[in-house]
Amino acid sequence: MIEMEPQTPLFKAVEENNLDLIIQYAPQYAGVRDLDGYTALHRAILSKKLECTVILAPYERTYLTPSGISPMFLAESIGFLQAIGCLQDPPREVAHIRKEDDEVARLHTSTQLDHQLALLKELLDTKAELEQARSWNAELQGHLVRQNTSYKDTEASNHDIGPSSANIDTCVICLDRPRDVVYLPCRHFIICEHCFTASRLSICPLCRSPIADTIIILR
């Protein structure tokens, strides 16, 4: 009979999206259900935490709730389609293959594990890229604050600012609204959000490199 507990370190790690602790506690607490009958994998799926789901899938993908809900069925029912691949049941496929050839079964299992590890690495790389983007955003925010401070100091000391100075922080397209869109990966900061949306640009007007993403600077 599967043990049921209100909370375990594994459930807490999933709640906090702590991947290191999930890896540490998954072998020890695999199969434990909470008071609602869910495993840690069910909870990760309900929260649509893909990294947690990938790590927990090999341990708990075959566990059902008391009402018979499998992790695969739960993911499909809430539209969490990204998790379907890692929630398929390789053990059932391996059992079928082993009847024909044990060596093929071992190779199949190894391929499945390699695929899951590659998927997890891709997810972690994406997470690192997002952290880098946040760091760029923070740097740009700081640069904007310093630029505005310098502009105000200049304005206070000289009321007769020429047109070229007045327009230094305005959009290069409309020459009216302030710049607030940063292109990635080139990081050029030359256009306002309104003109970017209206023009539907796919390349940077300054360096002509493709625009993969943008960061909106909040003033």
Automatic annotation (TrEMBL):
This is RING-type domain-containing protein. SMART domains: RING. The keyword Membrane does not apply. It comes from Giardia intestinalis. Gene3D superfamilies: Zinc/RING finger domain, C3HC4 (zinc finger). Keywords: Metal-binding, Zinc, Zinc-finger. Residues 171-208 form the RING-type domain. Pfam families: zf-C3HC4_3 (PF13920). GO terms for molecular function: zinc ion binding.
